[in-house]
Structure formats: C-alpha cells, structure tokens
Amino acid sequence: MPSNTISLCKFVGTINLGLLTGVSASLAVVTLPALLTLSTATTARQTLSYISSRTKTLSLCLRGVTASALFLAYILSPRRFRHPYLLYTSVFTFASGLGVDYAIAYSEGTNEQRQQLDLEAQGDEVNGEEVRQAVERMKVTEGVRAAVAGAAFAMQVVGMWGDGA
Predict the structure, then answer these.
(1) Alpha helix locations (H) across the chain?
(2) What transmembrane ranges does the database entry give (predicted)?
(3) Does the N terminus or the C terminus of the chain have fewer Cβ atoms within 10 A?
(4) Under a CB-based contact definition with an 8 Å cutoff, are residues 142 and 83 in contact?
C-alpha cells in the first residue's frame, strides 16, 4: 500500500509540474507578446490585469500541489529508497514561484507588485509605454519561471525513470 501511495504522489507531482511548466512557457511565448498587439493601452492593461490575477491563482495551486506531492513522496519513501531528486524537484518547484519573484525584484531594485498596483490605480488614463513595460517585465518573469520549472520537470522525469516507478 505505501508503494502505491508513493507512486501516486510521484505521478501527481510530475503531471502538475508539467502543467506548471506549460502555463509559464505559454504565457511567456504566446499570451504576453500577443498583448502588445492590442489596439488600445486600456484594453491591454485590463487584459494584463486579468491574465495576471488568473495566472497567479492557477500557478499557486499547481505549485502547491506539486511541491506537496513530491515532498510527501520523499517523506513516505523508505529510508533506503529515499531519492534526493524528489526533494530537489519540490524545492525547485517552490523556487519557481517565490524564488523567481524575489530574484527579479532584487535585480530590478523595485517591487513588481507595487508597480502592478500603480498600473491598476491609474483609472482611465493609461500610458501605453507603462503597460508595455509591465508586459515585458511579466514576460521575463514567466520565462524564468518556465526555465526553473522545466529544469525541475526534466529532473523529475529522469529521476522517475531511474527509479523504475
């Protein structure tokens, strides 16, 4: 029975990690560049705000389920079969969220959430250049998240293949 539980946790974690990688990659490559082609800055700002809030919620849920499932598989594994790749992938998954946010905020020297709120508080007066900068900033952030989550996904697949699970 514990072996089935461990395998289920690994399966759920791997599938969710793949979904998380796909969400971030499609945002960075397809969705956000398409925002720059919208006709008005107001429409682009509204769409960016909508996408940002929905993506944050979805990514947080996927990240939580993934990290929990993989860490649980690590904890439930017998000591002899406790492979560190499960721990590494759960840490990478967690780092693809808060770690990326802190790293990018540190490198820019600004608070992205404050800038996003400033964008939303502008009301009807929208500066297209500020919207473009916000889209570009989110595009970079999601690209880095996709890279970190993709590395974790590759590590997880190779680790599971090595386990024979």
Answers:
(1) 2-26, 32-35, 41-76, 84-94, 100-108, 112-120, 128-163
(2) 12-37, 57-76, 85-105
(3) N
(4) no
Q: How buried is 107 (Cβ within 10 angstroms: 0-12 exposed, 13-18 middle, 19+ buried)?
A: exposed
| CA dist., res. 17 & res. 5, Å (int) | 18
What pLDDT sits at residue 115? Answer: 56
Give me the torsion for CA of 83, 87, 90, 95, rounded to 10°.
-140
Place of tokens 């820019």: 108
Q: Please check whether residue 138 is in contact with residue 113, taking contact to mean a CB–CB distance below 8 angstroms.
A: no
Domain span at 26 = 2-163
Identity of the residue numbered 34: A
What the block records as the tokens of 111 is 């608070």
Please state, in angstroms and rounded to a whole number, the distance separating the CA atoms of residues 122 and 72: 44
Question: What is the distance between the alpha carbons of residues 45 and 107, in angstroms, rounded to a whole number?
Answer: 24
Q: What's the rounded mean pLDDT across residues 138-156?
A: 91
Q: What is the mean pLDDT of the chain?
A: 84
Q: Which two tokens stand for residue 65?
A: 């389920």
**Residue 29: count of CB within 10 angstroms of its CB:** 14
Maximum Cα–Cα distance across the chain? 62
pLDDT of residue 1: 47
